[in-house]
Automatic annotation (TrEMBL):
<comment type="similarity">
    <text>Belongs to the palA/RIM20 family.</text>
</comment>
<dbReference type="InterPro" id="IPR004328">
    <property type="entry name" value="BRO1_dom"/>
</dbReference>
<feature type="domain" description="BRO1">
    <location>
        <begin position="7"/>
        <end position="428"/>
    </location>
</feature>
<protein>
    <submittedName>
        <fullName>BRO1-like domain-containing protein</fullName>
    </submittedName>
</protein>
<feature type="compositionally biased region" description="Low complexity">
    <location>
        <begin position="867"/>
        <end position="877"/>
    </location>
</feature>
<feature type="region of interest" description="Disordered">
    <location>
        <begin position="663"/>
        <end position="685"/>
    </location>
</feature>
<feature type="region of interest" description="Disordered">
    <location>
        <begin position="509"/>
        <end position="542"/>
    </location>
</feature>
<feature type="region of interest" description="Disordered">
    <location>
        <begin position="807"/>
        <end position="947"/>
    </location>
</feature>
<dbReference type="InterPro" id="IPR025304">
    <property type="entry name" value="ALIX_V_dom"/>
</dbReference>
<dbReference type="GO" id="GO:0005768">
    <property type="term" value="C:endosome"/>
</dbReference>
<dbReference type="Pfam" id="PF13949">
    <property type="entry name" value="ALIX_LYPXL_bnd"/>
</dbReference>
<feature type="compositionally biased region" description="Acidic residues">
    <location>
        <begin position="910"/>
        <end position="924"/>
    </location>
</feature>
<feature type="compositionally biased region" description="Low complexity">
    <location>
        <begin position="732"/>
        <end position="746"/>
    </location>
</feature>
<feature type="compositionally biased region" description="Basic and acidic residues">
    <location>
        <begin position="509"/>
        <end position="522"/>
    </location>
</feature>
<feature type="region of interest" description="Disordered">
    <location>
        <begin position="588"/>
        <end position="614"/>
    </location>
</feature>
<dbReference type="InterPro" id="IPR038499">
    <property type="entry name" value="BRO1_sf"/>
</dbReference>
<feature type="compositionally biased region" description="Gly residues">
    <location>
        <begin position="592"/>
        <end position="601"/>
    </location>
</feature>
Amino acid sequence: MSTHNNNLVPLPFKHTQPLATLADDILAHLANTSESTHPDALRPDALAWQHLRLRAFAHSGLPLVHKDSGPLLEQYYAQLSFILTKLPSETPLTFPWYPLFISPSSLPSTSASGAFPPTAASAAPLAPPLALPSLEYERAGVLYDLAAVHAALGTERTRNDEAGIKAAIAAFQTAAGVLTHLLTLLPRLHASLHGGPAPADLSAPTVTALRDLCLAQAQEVAWQKAVMDRLKNGTVAKIAARVAELYALARGAAELARAGTADAQPFAFPEDTIRYLAIKEAHFGAVAQYRRAIDDLGANRYGDELGRLQLAEDKLQEAGKLGRRGVPDAVVRDLKASRASPLPLVLVVLLMLARGGTDAEDNNLIYLSPPTPASSLPPIPPATLARATLPPTLAAPLAHLRAPAIFAALVPRQVAEVLELWEDRKRGWVDERVEARARALECRAAGLLTQLHLPSSLEASHQPLGVPPAVLDAAARVQAEGGVARLEAMMQDVRRVAGVNARMLKEATDTLDRESTADAAHRAGHGPPRWTRPSSDAAAQPLRERAQQLEAVLRTAGDSDALVRAKFGEWEAALRVLEGGRDALAREVPASGGGAGGNGRGEGEGEGEGDAQRDRARRALRALLDQLADLRAARARVVDAARTSIAQCEIRERVLREAERRAAEGRARGGEDEGEGEGVGVGAREGSGLEEWEELLEGEGERLMRVWDEEMRRSALTLPTSDSPTRQAQHSLLASASATPSAAQQARERATAHYATAGDKFVEMLQNLQEGLAFYAKLGKLLGELRDACRSFDYARTAEAQDLARALSAAPSLSPPPPSSAPAPAPAPGTPRRRTPAAAAPPARGPQGQGQGQGGEATPRRSTRRAAQAQAQAQVQDGPASPAPSAVKTPARSKKKAAAPAAASANAKEEEEEETREEEEAGEREEVPAAAAAVGGWDPSQGIRFG
């Protein structure tokens, strides 16, 4: 049904594109990420996903407007919710969706079959699709199109009988409920984008505007039903006032979406849509005032009647000034005529005002009731009959899966995250509580040996000639690892990768600076009041903070590289000697001057008791060094055993059992908790995370690490100290030697210690450079991600700026009045003020077609009032008059006022009007809750009941 024959409009659909390779792409992703399930076992599930999406959107990328489309989209939504319990929302797959309102100058429309007509706009969308790697994005698009299907079904219902009206109201209320649910899921969508630009057509103001549009149209159909049931004029006025209020809210949200907010990009709502909302708002504001004017007439509130008629005329003129371009013909006809009254509502109001205009002087003279100013008119309290209704299949989607769950064989996503966190914890425990403590103990032992010049001093004392074995071992290590050339090559590699990382960081910051400069130019060109999108400083703040963090890390790494280069410069000469082998070392390590076992003082000087004492000291020291070496080897074996044992410790079954227990508790709590937790994890609720698993992880970790903590504690107790036997044996060896060692002996010991230490420094620098290369590789990955994020940010902001610039250049503002940035707040009860305009026509008195006759009003009979006024006029001018003819009955209150003095008439009039108003409001309070109660108990499949 075309919108030109309908005074209600559907929601625009979100186009998508078929994903012919969805199954293959998801299987390729699972092959790289799933360690527990083979991808071939998941192929049927992947194909089922691809087939279900194709059924939901067909090859055109649009759902059909049919009663079977709703359950199909609900089923796809439920499957996506279940998939989100197995997979993270961020995936390598991208889901393309076109923005809303692909035709920027027309209202959304549906053909007879429910699909968009084959126009150029639908065949070739003006904007490219936005493809995002987020399952939350796909789910939001599905949920929105489900709301659009319900809204389209509501517009296609024939509303000339009670069944059609009930079905239309049910459809619009369901559409509003779906959009309300979508609003609750938008934070998850934004979180899945990790600070990237969110789709402007799925922002909170945009969805709110369309939600309020659905509620307004549901309330409008309820108003039509109230007119058909001939409810009191005061009741109809309250229902119409709520219609106007909802259209005003929708218009305010749409204008807020056009302007943009701190959390949402500007979205170019079509002018025709905002014009349609403004006309409806003004029209129903006039309808509410007109109906209340009839009510005031019956209650003899003549001043209020004239004031409300004047206000209704103002609102109708306001609707006429907005223009008709792009507005459905049926909406324009609502302002003109209906079956119940061949006169347009505008003319009806003008005729009533014309009749009342000649009586204005009569009111002033007789009834003391001049037209009430608009600011003094009592506000019309709105009566809400339409409310957003969420289907149970969306409130608890996992409980309404009517087909086998897709990827049920996969480990739940939160379980996988817990297991991944467990692996990270195990690696951390090995590093911090085993390897780090072992390294600290090793450094203390090495420091003590270096302080005692061991084992080089022992070897120098035992072997006064030739190169000591410790130095030869150091030279062998240096030669085996490539020597100085390898260190120089690795330092060059470190400088190269550090430069690459620095260039990536500079490229990222330059991209942000370039975008900031472009944004400043746009802001200066269009002016800050019009260029309302967030500034670059605010939008790019997370990226700039990340860049600053990585820059600090890169600067610290550069300082560490400088220390390694300085260390290399200090030990380069010694390393080149070690690299030269035995011959080079023989030239650098002097002899002590004596033969084997001598002390450098003569051939026979070391014989006798002194030599025996030195030999005993050497053997004791050698035994202690061997014992220390055994302890160090045992500690290394403990570290290896701990590394292997901790890596093999699994808690998979324990976590699965705990997850199932929590899921069962969630199901026992009911569908509401399940609906809150869908997409988060098995049994998890919204806002919950891995912190609720901390107790389990900490308990398992303590049980696992208890034995290895004890092993490391025992290993620390065996470390040599200042009064250890090793130090005492070294002192004994020195005491057994000559009291004054020769210069040659001292030089040999210094050279031996120097080159042995050089070998240790070589190993240390080699490890530092290897760690540096690995560090820069990881840092390069982070910087690459930052650079790509900055590029994506620049691309999205540039496209957004171009769209906003085109919108500012091409879109004239509606007149009158200028658009507001937010919907006006509802007046406080009892506050006299002019109500916000609303747009729709007054009701007819009988069943009408949905495209016609919903806006006209029949002219009420005014003979009673005119006769009373005529009689009062005659009494004032010509004295008492004869009773009026029986065909024209004069109200008793009017006769009473005419006979009383002017002051008494005024007081009596006020008292009687107050009594009459209280009686009428009591009757309306009885009538409106009856209709509202019928709405509150309605069945979504049956629509709404009245009366």
